[in-house]
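Backbone shapes recur. Consider a single case.
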Amino acid sequence: MTGSSDQVIAPDGDGVGRYSWYENETEPDRRYYKRMSHGSSHRKRMVEGPQLCHRMRPIQPDVIRGTDFIAVTTTYQYEYAAPGRKTGSRWTQRIVFPRGERFFVLMDKIDSVNDSPEMFLRSDMPGCIRHEKGDTFSEIYLSYLSGPNEVRIPSSEFFTPFPPDLKFGYRRDLNRTPAHFIRAYHLRDKQTGEEGPWLAGLTLESSVVYEAWCSQRPGDIVVMIEEIHGKPVKAGDSFSAAHIVGYFDAIEEMHGVYDQYKGHTALTADASGWQLVR
């Protein structure tokens, strides 16, 4: 990331690192895109940056090769902060790949140097879906909306852009916390149309999820943003979430794996093995 912190997050809110919001825009196309991207009902503020997924500078992870697993740990200190905030909170991501499984185990953790009344970390869980009229997926499963009948949302619901606060979303302050927090999409072969496995993200402690989106943005992409924690934080505090991400042949299989690992929010690993932690 180049440029000074004043250029990144300007005092007037127009820096490249700001949290995008439709009311900040005057040009109609940009205003429309920001509303489709972030909605209009739950405005938020960025504490530190950059956005890691595409603006983080290259760093070298730590790799452990165990007898039946590989663990990859990445740490990064945020490089700039909003006006009035400190710089230097640490993000840690640990991924464990167990031998013989079709999934990996993942932890995201924040060690904060700032106070906040409602700090959260945002990620894509299990990831974004690139598609053209549903050519790469046939349906989506969201456990927090599905109830006992396992309601599945057809890909046709995602042919037209809509904001994340219109439908298919979750907010901890508005929705009942589900027993299992699972989000998945059913893969489809782009060339043949043949259905494949589900790609699912399992957040192993449902109560850590602050807000989750499943919305169609302009540009042929379904965004499955998930925010964790969303609670008061003091400088020196930490918070984390643990997930399982991988391929499953059936929704029942996802729930079975969830039951094996549920209730955990952290992940440790050394040469002797790995362990989920509550």
Remarks:
- The two ends are 35 Å apart (CA to CA).
- The longest strand covers residues 238-248.
- The chain has five helices and 20 strands.
